[in-house]
Amino acid sequence: MKQAPKPATEPTVQTCSAAAGGVAAASTLGFPAIVRAQGAINMRFQSTWPTVDIFHEFAVDFTKKINDMTGGDLKLEMLPAGAVVPAFGLLDAVSKGTLDGGHGVLGYNYGKQNALALFSSGPAFGMDANMILAWHKYGGGKELLDKLYASIGGNVTTFLSGPMATQPFGWFKKPITKTEDLKGLKFRTNGLAIDLFTEMGAAVNALPGGEIVPALDRGLLDGAEFNNATSDRLLGFPDVSKVCMLQSFHQSAETFEIIFNKDKFNGLPKGMQAIIANAVEAASADMSWKSVDRYSQDYINLQKDGVKFYKTPDSILREQLVVWDRIVSKKAETNPLFKEIEESQRAFAARAMSWDMDTNNNRRLAYNHYFGQKKS
Question: Do the beta carbons of residue 45 and residue 156 sit within 8 Å?
């Protein structure tokens, strides 16, 4: 049987390597900002963290997983805060395509739509950050977050990742023993915690991570919170303060957010999109494990540096909850999306918290048994 003659010019088809499962690479037509080199897709990301912070390390860990899992067919570069835009400018830069994506937290976008901060600020009805991720994936949170971004024109595909431990109340010149100690105190925080501490009497200033310690050093701040023992140590908090108050409801269930420019994400092959979604979850688990290891080490190192840790008094914690309820009520009156998200979280927390508290052991009992009595 005679073969049909080949056309004079055959179309060229680029494919990804076998390491990525032989997924066909996306055509770059219509997506000129995605740089192709030798069949690879290169994307430029930026974090909202300075290079020294372990948070930027977590961001780089995510990009390495993507690069490894795609066999180099998708290459993500993660730049530190300020490399292209300031930390608080990340969402706009990714929406416009100035950056292909980024790594940050939702609280940094609070000024665009205050309901965004419900995913990262406040007591979350007692849930921890892993429960927030459960609500986000299985309880309707993702759909609500997509709805939020659509309401402000955010041209992004978003993923939540990396459950954080309860954040310290903050670093101060002396221990905070009662709510009155906050009156007039110049304090750094972000998200809805701004409203919380403002109503509790503080003069609040929202600053990105890399600017906090210099502000404390110059006396522009009397106190500040950032996140954890490792970040706080690397950023230099023990150089300007020796008092750290542990436990607070202002950010007790925060997670990271990884965003892609939506057009560029949608232009990727479906196989690559699936790899990204699974890499987000792999990075989330790895971050939570690494944080236990590193934070516990630096908790000891900070004490060696002369830092004194104090538990935030229950009277202040209770007042935070009371004030938070007032803030949420006011926001819900004027923002229907805020109310919808708050009600969704509440419904999920009612059953998740009941199950959690009834099922899991009191770990302090075991700690005291094996390592000696520790103050509660």
Answer: no
